Amino acid sequence: MEQFSLKPEICFGPDALDVLDGLTGRVMVITDEFLAKSGLLDRVLSHLKGCTAECFTGVRPDPSLELVARGARALADFQPQAVVAFGGGSPMDCAKAMLYFGRRLGAGEGVRFYAVPTTAGTGSEVTSFAVLTDTAKGVKYPLVDKALLPHTAILDPGLVAGLPPAVVADTGMDVLAHAAEARVARRATPFSDALAEKAFAMAYQNLRAAFDGPDREQARGEMLLASNLAGIAFDAAGLGICHSLAHALGGRYHVPHGRLNALLLPAVIAFNAQDARAAEGYGQLARRCGLAANPRALAAALSRLRAALGLPDRLAGCGVERSALEADGPAIVQAALGDLCTPSNPRQVTGEELRGLLRDLA
Ligand SMILES: NC(=O)c1ccc[n+]([C@@H]2O[C@H](COP(=O)([O-])OP(=O)(O)OC[C@H]3O[C@@H](n4cnc5c(N)ncnc54)[C@H](O)[C@@H]3O)[C@@H](O)[C@H]2O)c1
Ligand SMILES: [Fe+2]
To answer: What is the pairing mode between strands 112-117 and 82-87?
Structure first.
């Protein structure tokens, strides 16, 4: 039996944060330091006037296991009735894991969980994934469990309007990677295909304008919706080796997640296109974007978009030297083979093939 289920309720639009207005009692807001200082956090706090709110502002990009452990203890101490995760993938994933592990310390049971993305994005507000980093081992692990899903996702386009262009570029390419990988993943269904195709086309049509176009605010709002649709798609269908390699490289070299996906995606499309079903899926995505309906046209268009956004086409451009890659190659390949995204890749992959992909991008 195949299944497709939807958990988070999704509130979207300029007044979406109003859904927080009815909250009372103890509320913990989990965010990063930049957002806490930026003034954006005040937009959330202004909806929590009737609550006792505590802010956990210590989240850093690519949350570590130590940070999650500290956060879980803070949750257990504060005993909130509701949690609001506010930020990009890092604060949302950190909040998910804090609740998950906080339950073992006596916090989190029955807690209402809201996720408010400020990047577009990871789609984490609607996924059962939380990506954590083991800093000692230099490895990123996706934790995957339905128990991680928020109850409510809140999409306010005003929160992404002022994003720096570099963050728009990185996170926007992550959206395209989610949609492309979901469309051809092994667990894809007609439900996830519909969402992945819509998400991909929306992101492809809006990312350039969201980066630096004259109507960037409008385009950024569209990217927020595309990010969410892609999140639902990949939560149902799974991802693939683009994300497995991005996790393995990101855990070791701390390059922004979306930038690694931007680098890897055209090469992964070329690799997977040797599978006939994947080639057909990529062709469908290309057709939806007004391109020739084949994987080669899709990969070329993504490479052009990557260049237009000023993103690197080599790992050296991400600060990863060829010599480091040569030395770390076996460990990176091992981590990618063991990543939870690898089994859903449309083609089975060997360590030697992954090594070859990395060598071509050095
Ligand atoms: N859970 C999932 O389903 C999922 C999916 C993909 C990626 N991820 C993970 O999410 C993390 C990446 O998340 P991300 O790409 O959203 O980046 P992020 O959360 O790490 O944020 C990147 C930077 O952008 C800043 N920022 C965020 N919102 C802003 C705003 N509105 N204005 C100005 N600056 C802002 C942050 O302060 C930070 O410095 C990675 O760890 C990745 O592995 C998770
Ligand atoms: Fe991603």
So the answer is: parallel
CATH number for 165-361: choose from 1.20.200.10, 1.10.1040.10, 1.20.1090.10, 3.30.160.270. 1.20.1090.10
Read off the pLDDT of each residue in 199-223 and give the average, rounded to a whole number.
98
Nearest residue (CA) to ligand 1, atom 9:
89
CB of 124 closer than 6 A to ligand 1?
yes
Q: Judge if the beta carbon of residue 129 lies within 6 A of ligand 1.
A: yes
The pTM of this model reads 0.97
| pLDDT tens by residue, 262-305 | 999 999 999 999 999 999 999 999 999 999 999 999 999 999 99
Side-chain-facing half-sphere of 45: CA atoms under 13 Å: 16
Q: Is the dihedral of CA 157, 159, 161, 166 positive or negative?
A: negative
Q: Exposure of 4 by Cβ count < 10 A (0-12 exposed, 13-18 middle, 19+ buried)?
A: middle
- The closest of 118, 75, 114 to 98, measured between CA atoms, is 75
- Residue 179's nearest CA partner among 148, 209, 223, 117 is 223
- What is the tens place of the pLDDT at every residue in 41-94? 999 999 999 999 999 999 999 999 999 999 999 999 999 999 999 999 999 999
Whether the CB-CB separation of 264 and 258 falls below 8 Å is answered with no
Among 62, 64, 90, say which to mutate for ligand 1: greatest number of ligand atoms within 8 Å of CB: 90
CATH 1.20.1090.10 domain extents, the chain: 165-361
Which residue type, as a one-letter code, is found at position 292?
A
Nearest CA to ligand 1 atom 38: 61
Measured distance CA(220)–CA(26) in Å, rounded:
32
Q: Which residues contact 48 (CB under 8 A, 6 or more apart)?
A: 20, 23, 27, 29, 84
Count Cβ atoms below 10 Å from residue 220 Cβ, excluding itself. 26
Residue 159 dihedral angles phi and psi, to the nearest 5°: -75, -20
What CATH number has the domain spanning 9-159? 3.40.50.1970
Does the Cβ of 32 fall within 6 Å of ligand 1? yes
Kindly report, as residue ranges, where domains of CATH 3.40.50.1970 are found in the chain: 9-159
Do 197 and 281 form a contact (C-beta atoms < 8 A)?
no
